[in-house]
Specification:
The complex is a heterodimer of chains A (167) and B (100). Chain A contains six helices and no strands. By secondary structure, chain A is mainly α. The longest helix of chain A has 26 residues. Chain A is globular, with a radius of gyration of 20 Å. Chain B has a single domain, classed as Orthogonal Bundle (Helix Hairpins), CATH 1.10.287.3510. Chain B contains three helices and no strands. In chain B, helix 1 runs antiparallel to helix 2 and helix 2 packs antiparallel against helix 3. Chain B is elongated and about 50 Å long. Chain B starts with a helix and ends in a 13-residue tail after the last helix. The chains are: A mainly alpha (167), B mainly alpha (100). Chains A and B meet through helix 1, helix 2, helix 3, helix 4 and helix 5 of A and helix 1, helix 2 and helix 3 of B.
Chain lengths: 167, 100
């Protein structure tokens, strides 16, 4: 077993364990911390996949900014203690069915990808994915999406302010 | 390791766990976090494909998805805060009516 694969397996285990911890956590606060752990693990995987810039963005934007926003809202609402999710009055069968269907989805997806594993072409030569190259690609090939995303962010910012404004 | 396959498999597993979270949890915040998990797993698959083909386009897409996720979180959390103010609850079963 190559060291790369071993490292991948360990980090993948951490990511899946953190995701499961989030799913079954009783406290929204712990769930958010588990999710940060998952994002951190995925950031390490980005490093393994030759995406150093994205790994840094993942930590600073995702695990940093977005999750801090989550933690703020959880504490603002006083929703730390979720307690046991109340049994829904209707559709009692929904939760067990959801778990079964999710397991089916996992098996299906793993089968679909594993069945085509042999058909994948050889891995191409790694390109330089540093900030300089990312920035050049962003400005040269992806200028229009870049401008559009800026407007999306502005709209989201205004929307958030308008929605939470006290009447 | 010479293919991106293990990463894509992990991404599929994380995505399915996110789907499961959306389906089994009743708290709007938890559902929202599960959606983040799904977005993140899609990102992982895109980065894996970018590595497989040796091109930057996959990474650019991840960049844009992250931005959209940030916008989505800002608006979504604002909505949850507003709903909580009106209903004192983040349980989605309590929010079965469109009427405010």
């Amino acid at each position: 077993m190559s060291p790369d694969l071993l490292l991948f397996l360990i980090i993948a285990l951490v990511a899946v364990a953190a995701a499961l911890g989030m799913l079954f956590s009783r406290s929204a606060l712990y769930a958010a911390l588990f999710l940060i752990m998952n994002f951190g693990a995925v950031a390490v995987l980005y490093l393994l996949l030759n995406a150093p810039f994205l790994a840094v963005v993942q930590v600073s934007v995702y695990a940093g900014a977005i999750m801090v926003l989550f933690l703020f809202v959880i504490m603002l609402l006083g929703a730390e203690r979720l307690g046991r999710d109340p049994e829904p009055a209707t559709m009692r069968w929904q939760r067990p069915l959801a778990i079964v269907l999710a397991v089916v989805l996992i098996v299906q997806a793993v089968y679909v990808f594993a069945a085509r594993a042999g058909a994948a072409p050889a891995v191409a030569e790694a390109v330089d994915a540093g900030p300089l190259n990312i920035g050049k690609t962003l400005i040269n090939s992806y200028l229009l999406p870049f401008e559009v995303i800026a407007i999306v962010l502005l709209a989201a910012m205004i929307g958030a302010v308008v929605l939470t404004r006290d009447k | 390791m010479d293919t991106a396959m293990p990463y894509v498999l992990l991404s599929a597993i994380l995505f399915a766990l996110g789907v499961m979270g959306v389906l089994i949890r009743r708290n709007a915040l938890m559902i929202f976090m599960s959606i983040e998990l799904m977005l993140n797993s899609a990102n992982l698959a895109l980065v894996a494909f970018a590595r497989q083909w040796g091109q930057l386009d996959g990474q650019m897409f991840v960049f844009f998805i992250m931005t959209v996720a940030a916008a989505e979180v800002a608006v979504g959390l604002a909505l949850i805060v507003t709903i909580f103010r009106a209903r004192r609850s983040t349980n989605v079963d309590d929010l079965a009516q469109l009427k405010g």
